């Protein structure tokens, strides 16, 4: 069977959508097996909700990311692609992001089918490259990281992973876009305890798990107005906001035999998947 593969739009917008079945079934099951335990859990969650301001928590995370002079992080991404039949197929991608404000950005990507490439900005030139195809393109666009991200997304139609998270306007963007922000629970599972925050925007429900260090460990976006309500998930690891990133990281050196082309746009491949790439705005 041939499946359509396209890269899901990666954009921060809204949160929190738990299906009626999963939430109600779980609550019924816990209540039936141990009503006292259920009461205790509800009490703890209410106490946590009363002491933790979800909006302040989300704003604290956004301000920490926006204010970082340099940062690097690895992101494991998983995204649904709804087929014509209505079936959802999940694909994955790994991103490594390096930022040194105000002028440097690098994103390296590898998709689950092996395609690899990335983006480099050095304050003057925006370079897009495909390691798989051994081609690259360069566009002169002086400015800072914020300007480069917006130019890449809006003018060149380039995918930038979780674009808003890379900009210094993240706190204002989240405040403007989010219509509701709620505290879900203190999650003790995973590599570290986190605060689970859920929010909504007009088009997207989103959830984010924030560690004690005010950095996100996980994020889920549900595109509630799209057919099939596809989801995008990101798992963050190896955060580093302290070590200086060597400027050579942001220097592009073409591989041997690499071809420079006027514009680097994703090309459809006749491999049974018809990959069509979207952007992140």
Features:
two-stranded parallel ribbon; 281 residues; twelve-stranded mixed sheet; 5 helices
Report on the architecture of this protein.
By secondary structure, the chain is of the alpha+beta class. The protein has a single domain (6-16, 66-270), classed as outer membrane lipoprotein receptor (LolB), chain A (Clam). Helices cover 22% and strands 35% of the residues. It has 5 helices and 14 strands. It has helices spanning 20-33, 35-51, 54-67, 145-154, 170-177; strands at 6-7, 70-82, 88-100, 104-111, 116-121, 125-130, 135-140, 180-187, 194-200, 204-211, 216-223, 231-240, 259-260, 276-277. The strands form 2 sheets. The chain has a 12-stranded mixed beta sheet. A two-stranded parallel ribbon has the order 1-14. Helix 1 crosses helix 2 (35-51) and helix 3 (54-67) packs antiparallel against helix 5 (170-177). The radius of gyration is 20 Å and the shape is globular. The relative contact order is 0.23. Mean pLDDT is 81; it is low at 7-39 and 264-281.
Strand content: 35-45%
How many distinct domains? 1
Which range best describes the helical content: under 10%, 10-25%, 25-40%, 40-55%, 55-70% or over 70%? 10-25%
Mean model confidence by pLDDT: 81
CATH class: Mainly Beta
The main sheet orders its strands as: 8-9-10-11-12-2-3-4-5-6-7-13
Distance between the termini: 32 Å
Named CATH topology: outer membrane lipoprotein receptor (LolB), chain A
Write out the CATH superfamily name: Lipoprotein localisation LolA/LolB/LppX
Low-confidence stretches: 7-39, 264-281
Task: Estimate the global geometry from the Cα principal axes.
Answer: globular
Q: What is the architecture at the second tier of CATH? A: Clam
Nearest-angstrom radius of gyration? 20 Å
The largest sheet, given as strand count, sense and whether it forms a barrel, is: 12 strands, mixed
């Amino acid at each position: 069977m041939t499946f359509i593969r396209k890269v899901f739009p990666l954009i921060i917008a809204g949160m929190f959508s738990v299906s009626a079945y999963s939430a109600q079934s779980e609550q019924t099951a816990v209540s039936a097996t141990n009503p006292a335990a259920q009461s205790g859990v509800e009490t703890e969650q209410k106490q946590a909700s009363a002491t933790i301001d979800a909006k302040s928590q989300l704003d604290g995370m956004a301000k920490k990311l926006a204010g970082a002079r340099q940062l690097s992080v690895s992101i494991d991404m998983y995204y649904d692609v709804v087929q014509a039949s209505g079936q959802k197929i999940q694909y994955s991608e790994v991103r490594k992001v390096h930022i040194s404000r105000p002028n440097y950005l690098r994103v390296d990507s590898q998709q689950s089918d092996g395609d690899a490439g990335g983006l480099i900005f050095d304050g003057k030139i925006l370079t897009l490259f495909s390691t798989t195809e051994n081609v690259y393109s360069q566009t002169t666009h002086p400015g800072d990281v914020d300007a480069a991200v917006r130019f890449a997304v809006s003018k060149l139609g380039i995918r930038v992973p979780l674009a808003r998270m890379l900009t210094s306007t993240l706190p204002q963007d989240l405040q403007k876009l989010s219509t509701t922000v709620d505290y879900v629970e203190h999650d003790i599972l995973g590599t570290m305890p986190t605060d689970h925050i859920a929010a909504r925007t007009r088009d997207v429900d989103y959830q984010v798990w924030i560690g004690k260090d005010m950095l996100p460990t996980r994020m889920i976006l549900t595109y509630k107005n799209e057919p099939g309500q596809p989801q995008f998930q990101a798992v963050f690891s190896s955060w580093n906001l302290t070590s200086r990133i060597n400027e050579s990281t942001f220097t592009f050196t073409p591989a041997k035999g690499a071809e420079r082309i006027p514009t680097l746009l994703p090309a459809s491949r006749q491999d049974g998947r018809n990959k069509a790439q979207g952007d992140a705005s």
